[in-house]
Amino acid sequence: MTPDQHLRSDEVVVFGLGYVGLPLVRACVLNGLRVVGFDPNRDVVELLAAGRSHIDDIPNEEISRCLALGLRVTSSQEDIPNAGTFVICVPTPLSESGGPDLAAVRNAAKTIVTKLRRGSLVVLESTSYPGTTEEILLPLLESSGLEAGVDFNLAFSPERVDPGNLRYTLETTPKVVGGLSAACLARATAFYELLVSKVVPTKGLKEAEMAKLLENTYRHVNIALVNELARLCHSLDVDVWDVIEAAETKPYGFQAFRPGPGVGGHCIPIDPNYLSHRVKVQLGEPFRFVELAQEINASMPHYVVQRVQKLLNRDRKALNGSRILLLGVTYKKDIADTRESPAYEVARDLLNLGAQLTFHDPLVSTWIVDGTAIEPVRDWRTACQSVDCVLLLQDHTEYVSNVHVLKTSPVLDTRGIKGLRPVERL
User: What is the reported pTM?
Assistant: First the structure.
């Protein structure tokens, strides 16, 4: 039996069936692998078992197709087989100490210990600080009595999922892979070569872990740069959006980033903190770029509220008691995900200052901020005409396609929609 045939005949277990794990499950199934998907959330498992998807990038039809091809999903550890490959795609949220909360990773590892066999491959895809795979995952797995790099293979391959990106999917995005040893790297490479167009090997585990943090820190720092520039440009009476459009005509040495009400999602506002925390704990030094970027980006929702207040003042209105319509509360355009959305902080500030809030989002039907259910509006076009201010927080396609409606209302546009000029913009 060839290595390829061996991989296809063995089972793959994926821990975590969210934005990272579910696309991986689909790719495995559609490439002929036998897959068991595990998630401790019973509601998620029951939804998937019924052929219904809970993430934007995978339609219900794809889930049904995978089930028909043999996909099994479960929330019971007893259903997990002694598989040839285990991939950990669980959440690593920010802990109170500032580092990643690795409880879900540890739980997955403890389950794998009872199922691990000689020759198995274990891959961590969840984002964490450099050293996590060797310092946390390895000793847990070796409690099975098997030795990593000798009896089983251990690797790290950072997820690069970009929700809503139809061009760069799991299959078409190069896959970075680091192994504990050359043999571990070869085994992990063989697995991912079945799924993706290109595998990029790194020198070791830490290099692969650091590569992921560099990617997100790069975005975090550059977003902070352009957010601070937007504030300075406003004070200097300079159109920052025009500046960016002019600068990005340079065909080399420049990549355009655009300002906004803050940063959101699970990666950009969180992952760079893992690196900052690691540097502080291990080296006793600050990672000044990350800390400054965090400070700037975290302040943007408050700055947006200040701009709303000034906009209302122009019409001789107080923020306290004003009717404000928030358009778009997700963290990303045309995606239903509200994780870490800056809209929460904006809404929290406005509520604390006495504003009367309503919201609309074509992808979100209910929205709760600090226990307060914000009233949704069905017809945002009509609602725009009956409020004191419209605050556009996300440039969903529905809004961009109807900019003529917004032109007739007092609007603060935090996304720089071209067709809205010359309304008030961030």
Answer: 0.92
